[in-house]
Structures are given as structure tokens and as C-alpha cells.
Amino acid sequence: MISDKMQAALNKQIELEGYASFYYLSxxxxxxxxxxxGCAKFFHRQSAEENMHMLKIFHYLSEIGGIAIAPGIxxxxxxxxxxxxxxxxxxxxxxxxxASINDLVRLAYEEKDYTTQNFLEWYIAEQREEEALIxxxxxxxxxxxxxxxxxxxxxKEIEIINTAQIAAESAE
Length: 172
Ligand code: OFO
Fold this sequence. Notes:
mainly alpha; elongated; binds hydroxy diiron-OXO moiety
């Protein structure tokens, strides 16, 4: 049986993952509008992934006899300064998610809720991969710089990364 505290914390995480999904959807729309098609595709896929992360917790709570709550999602920003800023914001948000997952693991341990602790292991690995991916993108953006044609090269680079991610996922 899950404790009320653990259940409330998992429902908070559902909200955070849901927000990430809409945040990245908003970024996809901004990229589309800026003509950054590769980036838009990347963010549509990221948004769908975050939705899956949200649902995974939702189903987990139902599975163990808890109550999953459909979250009210705050309006994410719809305008961004630059594509460089967008990826910096993504990195900051992923770090926030990682910190929140770590808090959940700590709580599960304190509550002696080993089932939830085990469930959260998937998220620990996922966050490690996500942070590494965004760091790699930020490094590439830095290498490309801000000269003429840089947006074109950044977009192409993100398109390549997105395609590789899709291929890796379908090979799993
Ligand atoms: Fe689900 O927060 Fe990123 O991966």
C-alpha cells in the first residue's frame, strides 16, 4: 500500500512531466515558426516522450491501488529569444526533473517503499540519458557558433540527432 505522502509526491511528478510535455510542445511550435524544422521535429518527439513519462507514473499509481490525478498544467511560455536559449532552458528543466526524481527516490527510501524505489530506477537512467543528450546538443551549438548560416547548421545537426534517436529507440 502506498503512503499518502508518496502518492502526493508521485502526483506532483505527473504534473512536472506533463508540464515538460507542453513546454516542449510550445518550443516545437516556436521552432516551426522560425523555420527550424529539424528542431521542431525534435521537440515534438521530446514532447511525446514526456507525455509517456507522465503516463508511466499515472499507470503505476493505478496498478498499485493508488489514485492518479490528471494534472492542471500551467501555460508554458510561447516566445523564446533564440534556439540557443531554448536548449539552455531545456537543460535547466531537465536538471529540475532530475532533482525531483532524486527527491522521490529519497522519499521512497524513507517510507521503506521499495516497490516505488524500484519503479523509479527507470527514471534515474532516463534522466541521465536526457541530460547527456542535451549537454551534447549544447556543445554542438557552441561549436557551430553564431555566424551566418549557423541556424541552418544547428537545425541540420538537430535533425541528424533526432533521426539517430528514432533509430536507437526502434532498435530497443
Ligand atoms: Fe521526463 O523529464 Fe525529461 O526525460
